[in-house]
Amino acid sequence: MSTPHTSAAGQDWELVIGLEVHCQLRTRSKIFCGCATSFGEAPNVNTCPVCLGLPGALPVINDHAVALAVRASLALECTVHDESIFARKNYFYPDLPKGYQISQFDRPLATSGQVVIGRQADGSPRVIRVHRVHMEEDAGKSVHDRFPQASAIDLNRAGTPLVEIVSEPDIRSAAEAAAYARRLRQILEYADVSDANMEEGSLRVDVNISIRPVGTSALGTKTEIKNLNSFSAIERAVEIEFARQVAVLTSGGHIEQQTMLYDDKRNVVRPARSKEGSHDYRYFPDPDLPPLRVTEAERQAQRDALPELPEARRTRFARDYGLPEVDIEQLLASRLLADRFEILVKESGDARRAANWLLGPVLASVNASGRALDAHPVSLARLGALIRLEAAGDVSNTAARQLFTLLEQEDIEPRVLAEREGVLQVRDDSALVAWIDEVLAENPTEAARFVGGERKLQGVLVGLVMKKSKGAADPKKVNQLLAARAG
Amino acid sequence: MSRDSGLSALHAHSVDAAWAAYDRVQAGPEGLNAFLAIDRDARTAAPDGPLAGVPVAIKDNLATLRLPTTCGSRMLEGYVSPFEATAVRRLREAGAVVIGKTNMDEFAMGSSNENSAYGPVRNPLDPTRVPGGSSGGSAAAVAAGVVRVALGSETGGSVRQPAAFCGIVGIKPTYGRVSRYGLVAYASSLDNVGVFGSTVAEAALGLEIIAGHDRFDATSADVPVSSLVPTRESISGASPLAGLVVGVPREYFPDSLDADIAARCRRALDHLRSLGAEVREVSLPSTDLAIPVYYIIAPAEASSNLARYDGVRFGQRAAAEDLGPMYERTRSRGFGAEVKRRILLGTYVLSAGYYDAYYKRAQAVRAVIAQEFRAVFASGVDLLFTPTAPTPAFRLGEVSDPYAMYLSDIYTVTANLAGIPAMSQPIGRVRGMPVGGQFLAPAFAEARMIQAAAALERSLGSEAQQ
CB-CB: which of A54, A59, A61 is closest to B81? Predict the structure, then answer.
């Protein structure tokens, strides 16, 4: 990923991007009360005096949320601090019950991490630094389209635990912004701390974007784009905002610091209703919550709970399996897929075929059926056995695909199935020679020409042998045997 | 049991007696206006509990299930909490009968109880005078004999100062000693639930029952609660306070102090000496910074704590076409002048560019004040003794300047800033009105403080009312 720039009126501009990512932690209860975090309930069912902000209610930290936030921070290679401080972010909004959000401000949970988003031209890793990770509570939702004359408020989400992950302004292109968000999602999913689903809102990305003349180092005035609900939306919105800022500056204007919204349907970026920007949140330490302390033992427990992370796995897959980079990326896309790949390698003894099968027929079948990957009816043991048949040449590639489809209907040992279906390839010389003799006898003219040296007829004859064997003959051996007959 | 000897009057005071007293003093032009809501149907929930059948009154900023919780504000008129404060629940589970909710300065902001949206409370000893505040209703209810134990709350002296004004006992425990769950927040780092009693032993029993760790309050302390009611043996005999060192901080006895109040304090110190205590002058040099520090930190926290009164989910909502005007009208109409003053002050000191100059510096000075107390207690001083308030109860309407009113808490705010326990008890009268003497103790040394107070109470005898 190279440093991009565009040329406008003779000036080259560099993009400077930082991402703020909010990620819902996968806890059963909310961050400061015992209410469930379950999704899709009737409005305001998952509420109590604490998350409703009723007079006299007090927050108590959910230890599991802290554990997941620590794990997420460690997965992002951050330093997790012994002590961090919850602070109140004060502002009025109907879906913010207390009139303040409990967040962390000048003493966050963790700082100074990094995410590798790819390789540079020289093969070195492209690293985006993570500035900080802090914990906070989610707000509720305002519902404006349910009642004709009124807005409604659903506070089921209020108090859902979040981590906010703030990158340094290290990102230099729209593609890098999307790549960073993808890698982040991947890491959070691997660490098993979040569903990290952009469409469902469990992963929310805000992009801070500014531009500056190439070769300069001072930061320009930034705008913040919100409402980005897919990776491709991030990429498109950044391109649009980049072009807008370049146009403003090259025409002698100046960038106003403001919040922008991306409209996915119309593919435009427009200013949000101007209530942001000038906000003074009057942060101060929340007197209801003592400093959050994390011990080394607690950090170690979360370190131990971390699986092998995508970057380490990427290196190992390349080294151990010799797979093409594009396949590795696809396999790493989800932890489940990569885990299943590794099991399949063991079952089949063939990494390349395992990758091809998973990324090909298995994913196609999963996508077509809408089933989860781990709910696919063909077990990895069966699939491994099938791959072994194919690799040994006992069934042809085509036959293997047919057997796979049958295995989706019926759980049976692949070799037994292949025998029943008559697709086991015959490799026994005497049987093959008998078929060859028959074909040559039935086609004397072609046989004579072939034996006489007309090599190009070999393909025709192999085809006839295959036809006679009803596809059961091993074409490789038939070729060898026929070649030996030629003059 | 010697422990119960000081509690017989408490157990003799029935709910019926409470209602008889209530009917005598609450209403009418000279009525105390001490109660905002009553529950004539309340019965004991624990007939065998230590407070079985004992009538109690609860300040209206502690959440109760059967009665509204208004905090003395229009904003919460008619609001009934769906949950109960931990302190109230513990009293009920001990058998106490919650007969009513008491009047208070709006959201506990005030020192005279004149800031209630439901009218001022009168002092039972002189109806032309204030009972003190902000827990004026609870103090008046005890002083008038309606109940012998009541709950109040303290942020800067709101239990001790009205106890002093009304001639009763008021205890502010160590911060974290009593759960704040269900106490409607004013300034969370300073707020405490406190207890009023007709006697030291009665207040101590109330505290003993409500104290202790609560998992619903992250600032509640997980420190075991010892028995707090003093035994007869511990307060009688020749020198029950032998070995006790009582410090007298000179900053609490300025030349400007009311001479009669100073004289009552000197007499109380003589009693302490005669009980065997050693009295020693000490210094707490930063005492004069306590009021300015308090009036930065408390409003700052209040400005945030009171943001939830926005008309959206509960309480009163003013009609308006749009969100902004709804907020403005709801809060303009719902809050009284003193509450608005403190919200504005708090918003200012937290705002960008002023945070370091005000809030951060105030917290630094607060740490110094707390450290000075720790240093004095580490120097061999067991307790401190001071006047509770610089004046006796003043007349309704007499103090109108907010800053003059704030100075009424000059001797009490320090304990809230330092988080240490303190209590007020009657030590005599000045011009017919009661004077309070204050003990301050190291964190979690309530038992030591209460034992000394009980010994002093016994030694003073009828002098406490002279």
Answer: A54
Kindly determine whether residue A56 and residue B310, on different chains, have CB atoms separated by under 8 Å: no
Only one residue has tokens 């000179």, namely B250
- The pLDDT of residue A1 is 39
Give the residue from B216, B220, B322 with the most A CB atoms within 10 Å of its CB, the best one to mutate. Answer: B216
Residues of A in contact with B354 (CB under 8 A): none
Q: Over 90: is that where the pLDDT of B284 sits?
A: yes
Q: CB neighbours (10 Å) of residue A17?
A: 26
Q: Which residues of B touch A280 (CB under 8 A)?
A: 351-352
Pair B178, B210: CB distance under 8 Å: yes
Q: By CA distance, what is A53's nearest residue in B?
A: B308
- Is residue B140 within 8 A of residue B121, CB to CB? The reply is yes
Disruptive mutation site among A102, A105, A143, A288 for chain B (greatest number of B CBs within 10 Å): A288
At A365 the pLDDT is 93
Measure B310 CA to nearest chain A CA, in Å: 8
Q: Taking CB atoms and an 8 Å cutoff, what residues of chain A touch B347? A: 282
Q: Among A131-140, A342-351, A413-422, B260-269, where is mean pLDDT lowest?
A: A413-422
Mean pLDDT rounded to a whole number for chain B: 96
Helix (H, G, I), strand (E, B) or coil at A85: coil
- Interface size, chain A vs chain B, as Cβ–Cβ contacts under 8 Å: 103
Which run of H or of E encompasses A88?
A: strand A86-90
B73 part of the active site: no
Q: Which amino acid is at A356?
A: N
Retrieve residue B57's tokens: 């009154």
| pLDDT for res B29 | 77
Whole-angstrom distance, CA of residue B292 vs CA of residue A418: 89
Number of neighbours of residue A374 by Cβ within 10 angstroms = 11
Best residue in A35, A44, A58 to probe B by mutation, most B CBs within 10 Å? Answer: A58
pLDDT tens-digit map of B403-426: 888 888 999 999 999 999 999 999
A90 to B300: CB separation less than 8 angstroms, yes or no: no
Alpha carbon of B353: minimum distance to chain A alpha carbons (Å): 10
Torsions phi, psi of A359, nearest 5?
-75, -20
Model confidence band, residue B1 (pLDDT cutoffs 50, 70, 90): very low
Pairing type for strands B97-102 and B35-38 reads antiparallel
Q: Which of A106-120, A469-483, B370-384 has the lowest mean pLDDT?
A: A469-483
- pLDDT number for residue B75: 97
Give CA–CA dist A469/A422, Å, rounded: 10
Calpha distance A195→A40 (Å, rounded): 15
Strand partners, B101: B37, B58
Which among B62, B181, B189 has the least Cβ separation from residue A287?
A: B189
Q: Which residues contact A405 (CB under 8 A, 6 or more apart)?
A: none
pTM: 0.91
A8-12, A151-155, A254-258, B304-308: lowest mean pLDDT where? A8-12
- Amino acid A357: pLDDT: 96
Active site residue B158: yes
| DSSP state letter for A358 | I
The pLDDT of residue B3 is 54
Is residue B116 part of the annotated active site? The answer reads no
Report the distance separating Cα A260 and Cα A93, nearest Å: 19
**Closest residue on chain A to B82 (Cα):** A49
Q: What is the mean pLDDT of chain A?
A: 92
CA distance B154 to B156: 6
Q: Indicate the pLDDT class of residue B4, thresholds 50, 70 and 90.
A: low
Instruction: Report chain A residues touching chain B, CB-CB < 8 A.
Output: 49, 52-61, 88, 90, 92, 94, 97-100, 153, 280, 282-284, 287-290
Cis peptide before B112 (omega within 30 of 0): no
